[in-house]
Write a structure and sequence with these properties.
By secondary structure, this protein is of the alpha+beta class. It has 2 helices and 9 strands.
């Protein structure tokens, strides 16, 4: 799958459609879309973060995954953009990611939150996955 994500116009916020051949790839690409929307890059290598999220739906898992990444960025100035493993089952998402301190020099937007507005994860006719996510700026 070539296109990982695409942004769309949304009143006062940032809308993104994320694509993946699998749900795990969809979650990895959603993380890339979050970082791209902000415009940050890693300036130095850092540590590894292991994440385990439990939720009632795949939409909640995606929301909580992105919210965790946004928290790490906001609170600690770290992005985890090198996802080394990701697994998804019915109600659990687990990932291991390598991260590092942020270079803020190219930052374009301040994402305040991952919203539930229009949040959707769906399987497409070809078996691939698509998610719609709105970032509050």
């Amino acid at each position: 799958m070539k296109t990982r994500f695409e942004f769309f116009d949304h009143t006062a916020d940032i809308g993104v459609r994320v694509f993946g051949a699998t749900q795990e790839e969809l979650f990895v690409n959603a993380a890339a879309a979050l970082y791209e929307s902000i415009g940050v890059r890693k300036k130095e290598e850092g540590g590894i973060k292991k994440v385990r999220i439990e939720a009632e739906s795949v939409e909640d898992l995606l929301h909580d995954w992105l919210a965790e990444l946004l928290f790490e960025l906001s609170a600690h100035g770290v992005i985890f953009d090198d996802i080394q493993s990701a697994t998804l089952s019915a109600q659990v998402f687990e990932a291991t990611a390598r991260g590092g301190r942020v270079d803020w020099s190219e930052a374009r937007a301040e994402v305040k939150a991952v919203t539930y507005h229009q949040l959707r994860v769906e399987q497409r006719a070809d078996g691939s996955w698509m998610a719609t996510v709105i970032f509050d700026v």
